[in-house]
Every structure is written in structure tokens, then in C-alpha cells.
Amino acid sequence: STFPQQRDNEIFSLISQEAHRQEFGIELIASENFTSPQVMEAQGSVLTNKYAEGLPGKRYYGGCEVVDEVETLAIERAKKLFGAAWANVQPHSGAQANAAVFLSFLNPGDKILGFDLSHGGHLSHGSPVNFSGKYFQAFFYGVEKETGLIDWDKVEATAAKEKPRLIICGASAYSRDWDYARLRAIADQVGAILLADISHPSALIAKGLLNNPMQHCHIVTTTTHKTLRGPRGGLIMMGNDFENPFGFKTLKGDLKTMSACLDGAVFPGTQGGPLEHVIAAKAIAFGEALTPTFEAYAKQVQSNAQAMAKAFLAKGYDIISGGTDNHLMLIDLRPKGLTGKLAENTLIKSDITINKNMVPFDDKSPFVTSGMRVGTAAMTTRGLKETEMEQIVDLVDRALMNHENETVLAQVKTEVNQWMKQFPLYL
Ligand code: PLP
């Protein structure tokens, strides 16, 4: 071959540094996880070389016999895992999956109703800096100041007032479960399509640990790389054959018609060729998620989050809504006299990674923020359990309470690095 003989040490030494960072640090970013070696092997495979525009059996390129089988397996496994009637495994990311939904069923200028970004929603649900907020007229619901919970009556009132074409539920930083049946009733009242973006808690939903949107929401999207523990990517599903509830003149609401719209909105609507190496990795992750071992993992993620929330509360931290039902929690740091930015920058000195996050009714900018978001998906993959969650909270608290003391921060870092050796990951 004409491949270079020389190894690209510049890049590989950086990859090795990153492996080291992941192996010896504490990872609490709620949207991250560690994939299995098999997932990474598939992603680094020859499938990256293959163009396969179209769908299995209906491609615009020759030589797709093998990748057709790979993609079909990914689709079948996704359907089995979530109890879906239809799935498209091609979206390159969660935002791409949502983009395909918008392109399928909305016209520019249509009204959409989503969960407020500053209360825990996602950019792709109508934020003015995202295409979803630029091309559509976005309205938002949020949480109550006193409880930190979404008030479904208020969602209903906003939907009745604005009459959105699409209602989006799902979040990036909401620690409570969703009432999909109630949301569907609200959507039906105003003739809206209901989209559930389950990117964050998808593994917990797949394993029956949280309410399942599949029978209530017309469309379900998710990323594949958060609690689901697959490669970075997106997935779109439908659970049901729906009657035409939307009053569309040109579109029937049934599964066949809607899924055809969605397929077309992914390719050629918003993407070119699918990433078959990533799709193979998704298939592996879905296969792993169908095992009893993964069920135990998902349960542990949830128990660990509850143990972590309890430990934070015991140390006087203010968790929005007072606790968690899923894998994450959002902490208001104002009572501790800290900002999210300071917390993030302090903890990284001790090799503990979190992200700063706006809290509902935040008085600081998104670059500073009053909160931090933490989750248990990644550390549970390493094998940590409830008692270790208490130890993590001790380390986090020790670092934060000594944010001006570099000696303590260095001590905590040494402890973190030593401790993580007991839970080997890849090295
Ligand atoms: N939807 C939700 C609820 C998310 O939390 C995220 C990512 O954080 C996304 C969509 C976007 O996913 P991606 O980063 O893969 O585009």
C-alpha cells in the first residue's frame, strides 16, 4: 500500500494523554460514559471506508451488501431494546436526529414548544442560538421556582395559548421523570406532534427504570453515547401506528408515512452518507444493552445517583428539586458561595471533571453559572457502587471547600489518581 510507515506520534501521544486522563480521573459529566472496547473496535474498523447513501437494500452505491447487514442488525436491535416499531440509526448526533424531526414535520416559522434551556433543556429544542430557534417560533415551559419541578398544568396552559405544531419533552439537566401520558393528552388537545428526546436517560428507560415514552410520544429521539454507553451518535424511533391527529392536509399520521418522512429527512434531508463504522458500533452497544449485565448496570447507575444525591444533601448542597429519579442532578452552588465556573476550574485541578451549568432562574451568565451538573453513568461503568459515591462526594466537597488552597487540591488529586487504579478501565 501507499500508507505512511511513520506513526503520527503528534496525534497518538495526545490520544495516549487523553486515555491517561480518563483512566486516572473521576468523570462526573452527566452526558459522558465509557464505551466497551468492542464499540471502539467497530468504530475504528474498515467500515469507515464505505459510502452507503440510502437505506439497507435501497442504496445509491454498490458494494453495500455487508453494511446492509450491519445496519439492519443495528435497526433490529434498537427496536428490540426500546420496544419500537421503527428506527433510523443514521443520525450523526442527537442534534442531527432532532433536526431531521423538525425538517420532516415543520415549515419555517411554525411554532414549537420546548423545555427552557436555562431550566435544563437542550439547545436543539428551540434555543435562539440554534437553528431550531432561528427557523421556528419557539416557546418554552420551565420548572417552578419553589419545587424545581415542571408543572404540567402550566405546560398545558402554554400549549393552549400558543398552539404549537410540535411539543418537545426531554432535557439535559432535569433530574426527574416525565409524564408522557399527560404530555400526549396536551398535544392531542392542540393537535401537536409530541417528540420525546430521551438522550440522557435512554438506558434507564430501555431497562424499565423510568416511564417509557414509546407508546405516548409520536417520535422518540436519543443520543447513543450517554447512559446508553454507545458511540457518539443519534437515533430516531417511533413506537406506534398513530392515527392522523395533526390535521395535516398533505401528511397522514400513520407509521408508514411518518417514518418515510423521517428517513428522507435524515438522508438526503440533513445528512449525506451514513457512518457505517459508527452504526456497527451502535449495533454492538444495543446488543450489550440487551443483556442482563447491562440491566444491572442501569439499575446501579440509578442507585448510585440516589446515593450521590443523599451524600450531597447531607453536606448541605442544594439539589434542584431535592433529589433525582435518573442518573444526574443539578446543584445550585449559591448557598455555598461558589459559581459553576469556579467549581469546574477547582475540581479539574484535582482530576475530577464536572460541568458548570445554569440553574433555573440563574442570575449569572452561561459562562459563569450558579450551578454544576453531575451524573453517575461513567463511574458506574468502572464498577463503583453506593459507598464509593459517598467517597466521591467527600473528595468533591474537600476540593470545593479548599478552592484557594493549592496544597489540598494537589492532595485530593493524588488520592483520586491512586483510588482510580483500583477500578481499571482500558489501560
Ligand atoms: N438532546 C439532548 C437532550 C441532549 O442532552 C443532547 C446532548 O447533550 C443532545 C440532544 C445533542 O446531542 P449531540 O451532542 O450528539 O448532538
UniProtKB/TrEMBL annotation:
<dbReference type="GO" id="GO:0035999">
    <property type="term" value="P:tetrahydrofolate interconversion"/>
</dbReference>
<protein>
    <recommendedName>
        <fullName>Serine hydroxymethyltransferase</fullName>
        <ecNumber>2.1.2.1</ecNumber>
    </recommendedName>
</protein>
<comment type="subunit">
    <text>Homodimer.</text>
</comment>
<feature type="site" description="Plays an important role in substrate specificity">
    <location>
        <position position="225"/>
    </location>
</feature>
<comment type="pathway">
    <text>One-carbon metabolism; tetrahydrofolate interconversion.</text>
</comment>
<feature type="modified residue" description="N6-(pyridoxal phosphate)lysine">
    <location>
        <position position="226"/>
    </location>
</feature>
<dbReference type="InterPro" id="IPR039429">
    <property type="entry name" value="SHMT-like_dom"/>
</dbReference>
<feature type="binding site">
    <location>
        <position position="117"/>
    </location>
    <ligand>
        <name>(6S)-5,6,7,8-tetrahydrofolate</name>
    </ligand>
</feature>
<dbReference type="GO" id="GO:0004372">
    <property type="term" value="F:glycine hydroxymethyltransferase activity"/>
</dbReference>
<dbReference type="Pfam" id="PF00464">
    <property type="entry name" value="SHMT"/>
</dbReference>
<dbReference type="InterPro" id="IPR015424">
    <property type="entry name" value="PyrdxlP-dep_Trfase"/>
</dbReference>
<dbReference type="InterPro" id="IPR049943">
    <property type="entry name" value="Ser_HO-MeTrfase-like"/>
</dbReference>
<dbReference type="GO" id="GO:0005829">
    <property type="term" value="C:cytosol"/>
</dbReference>
<keyword id="KW-0963">Cytoplasm</keyword>
<comment type="function">
    <text>Catalyzes the reversible interconversion of serine and glycine with tetrahydrofolate (THF) serving as the one-carbon carrier. This reaction serves as the major source of one-carbon groups required for the biosynthesis of purines, thymidylate, methionine, and other important biomolecules. Also exhibits THF-independent aldolase activity toward beta-hydroxyamino acids, producing glycine and aldehydes, via a retro-aldol mechanism.</text>
</comment>
<comment type="pathway">
    <text>Amino-acid biosynthesis; glycine biosynthesis; glycine from L-serine: step 1/1.</text>
</comment>
<keyword id="KW-0808">Transferase</keyword>
<keyword id="KW-0028">Amino-acid biosynthesis</keyword>
<dbReference type="InterPro" id="IPR001085">
    <property type="entry name" value="Ser_HO-MeTrfase"/>
</dbReference>
<dbReference type="GO" id="GO:0030170">
    <property type="term" value="F:pyridoxal phosphate binding"/>
</dbReference>
<dbReference type="InterPro" id="IPR019798">
    <property type="entry name" value="Ser_HO-MeTrfase_PLP_BS"/>
</dbReference>
<dbReference type="InterPro" id="IPR015421">
    <property type="entry name" value="PyrdxlP-dep_Trfase_major"/>
</dbReference>
<comment type="similarity">
    <text>Belongs to the SHMT family.</text>
</comment>
<dbReference type="GO" id="GO:0032259">
    <property type="term" value="P:methylation"/>
</dbReference>
<keyword id="KW-0554">One-carbon metabolism</keyword>
<dbReference type="GO" id="GO:0019264">
    <property type="term" value="P:glycine biosynthetic process from serine"/>
</dbReference>
<keyword id="KW-0489">Methyltransferase</keyword>
<feature type="domain" description="Serine hydroxymethyltransferase-like">
    <location>
        <begin position="6"/>
        <end position="395"/>
    </location>
</feature>
<feature type="binding site">
    <location>
        <begin position="365"/>
        <end position="367"/>
    </location>
    <ligand>
        <name>(6S)-5,6,7,8-tetrahydrofolate</name>
    </ligand>
</feature>
<dbReference type="InterPro" id="IPR015422">
    <property type="entry name" value="PyrdxlP-dep_Trfase_small"/>
</dbReference>
<feature type="binding site">
    <location>
        <begin position="121"/>
        <end position="123"/>
    </location>
    <ligand>
        <name>(6S)-5,6,7,8-tetrahydrofolate</name>
    </ligand>
</feature>
<dbReference type="GO" id="GO:0008168">
    <property type="term" value="F:methyltransferase activity"/>
</dbReference>
<keyword id="KW-0663">Pyridoxal phosphate</keyword>
